[in-house]
């Protein structure tokens, strides 16, 4: 089992004919993902990577049955690309693009809500989603880990890869990189709920970072709704106050948003929190070995 992305998912790539779109569409195809076409209004009717290129997301969906779109378009055009996917009511839209203005992300997130939340947005500024052995939508390397029964939700792309690698002897049901921008389409809580409901997931790794209160809200949700074991890592214990660190949303103001505050909130509800990614992997290994 997996969440949101399965072996039956049919993927289109918005921006497939560009440099990044081409590179990662090739990688997705090589991994066995069912990439069925691309979208570029200026190149509609042509082929690229031996796949058809369509003028709109709606045309691509009608012709191929696609139910996932991966967005590789420049930041200035990302808002329109995502709104087009929402208008087409594609079930899942994975926005890889980095540097999307926050007001644009806010606008297309609100647009999705206005349209009835028929399109789940993952990202922006994220590595995407991978269900090992089934499908891969985004830039997560497909050969890090085999299929297994751990679920992973992470703000950080590189830490996603590290935890997948360190726990490769157990494998993953699905890994979701939600992105570290201040406004994102899918949250820790969304993924926690999906993993809790997924019979193919036995335990959950949650990776957070400084800034905002997403991890504290996730802790409150875990306390009320999650019965599966959760381990966590929070990046940024040494981050200086008031300085943005890496992701646009990773900024500490006073005592709010610190790694220590997030760690304490998670531990208060029974989540084991590693001091390093490797310790976090060890904590999960202990859980899996005891099952």
CATH class of the largest domain: Alpha Beta
Tally of helical runs: 9
Structural class: alpha/beta
Strand order of the largest sheet: 3-4-2-1-5-6-7
Report the order of strands and helices.
Answer: EHEEEHEHEHEEEEHEHEHEHEH
Radius of gyration: 18 Å
General form: globular
What is the CATH architecture assignment of the largest domain?
3-Layer(aba) Sandwich
Low-confidence region ranges:
none
Largest sheet: 7 strands, mixed
Strand content: 15-25%
Q: What is the CA-CA span between the terminal residues?
A: 18 Å
Quick one: CATH superfamily of the largest domain?
Succinyl-CoA synthetase domains
How many strands?
A: 14
> How many discrete structural domains?
2
- Overall mean pLDDT stands at 94
Helical amount = 25-40%
> What's the CATH topology label of the largest domain?
Rossmann fold
Per-chain topology:
Layout lengths: L9 E5 L4 H13 L2 E6 L7 E2 L2 E4 L2 H8 L3 E4 L3 H13 L4 E4 L6 H13 L5 E3 L5 E4 L3 E4 L8 E8 L2 H10 L5 E6 L10 H10 L5 E7 L4 H12 L4 E6 L23 H10 L3 E3 L2 H13 L2
Parallel strand pairs: 1-2, 1-5, 2-4, 5-6, 6-7, 10-11, 10-12, 12-13, 13-14
Antiparallel strand pairs: 3-4, 8-9, 8-11
Helix pairs in contact: 3-4, 5-9, 6-7, 7-8
Description of the structure:
The structure is a single chain. Helix content is 35%, strand content 23%. The protein is α/β, with parallel strands linked by helices. It has 2 domains: 113 residues, NAD(P)-binding Rossmann-like Domain (Rossmann fold, 3-Layer(aba) Sandwich); 146 residues, Succinyl-CoA synthetase domains (Rossmann fold, 3-Layer(aba) Sandwich). It has a 7-stranded mixed sheet, sandwiched between helices. Strand 6, helix 4 and strand 7 form a beta-alpha-beta unit. The longest helix has 13 residues. The two termini are 18 Å apart. The model has no long low-confidence stretch (mean pLDDT 94).
């Amino acid at each position: 089992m997996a969440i949101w992305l399965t072996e039956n998912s049919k993927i289109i790539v918005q921006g497939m004919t560009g440099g990044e779109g081409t590179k990662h569409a090739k990688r997705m195809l090589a991994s066995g993902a069912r990439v069925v076409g691309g979208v570029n209004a200026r190149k509609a009717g042509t082929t690229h990577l031996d796949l058809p290129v369509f003028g709109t997301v709606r045309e691509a969906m009608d012709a191929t049955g696609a139910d996932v779109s991966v967005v590789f378009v420049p930041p200035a055009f990302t808002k329109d690309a995502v709104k087009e996917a929402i208008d087409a009511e594609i079930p899942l839209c994975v926005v890889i693009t980095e540097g999307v203005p926050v007001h644009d992300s806010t606008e297309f997130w609100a647009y999705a809500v206005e349209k009835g939340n028929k399109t789940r947005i993952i990202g922006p500024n994220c590595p995407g989603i991978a269900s090992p052995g089934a499908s891969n939508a985004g830039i997560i390397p497909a050969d890090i880990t085999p299929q297994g029964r751990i679920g992973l939700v992470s703000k950080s792309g590189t830490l996603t890869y590290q935890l997948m690698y360190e726990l490769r002897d157990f494998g993953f049901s699905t890994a979701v990189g939600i992105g570290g921008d201040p406004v994102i389409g899918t949250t820790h809580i969304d993924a926690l709920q999906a993993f809790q409901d997924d019979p193919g997931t036995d335990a959950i790794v949650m990776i957070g970072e400084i800034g905002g209160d997403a991890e504290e809200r996730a802790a409150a949700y875990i306390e009320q709704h999650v019965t599966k074991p959760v381990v966590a890592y929070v990046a940024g214990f040494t981050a200086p106050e008031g300085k943005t660190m890496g992701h646009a949303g990773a900024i500490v103001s006073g005592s709010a948003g610190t790694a220590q505050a997030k760690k304490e909130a998670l531990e208060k509800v029974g989540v084991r929190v590693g001091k390093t990614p490797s310790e976090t992997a060890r904590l999960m290994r202990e859980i899996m070995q005891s099952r």
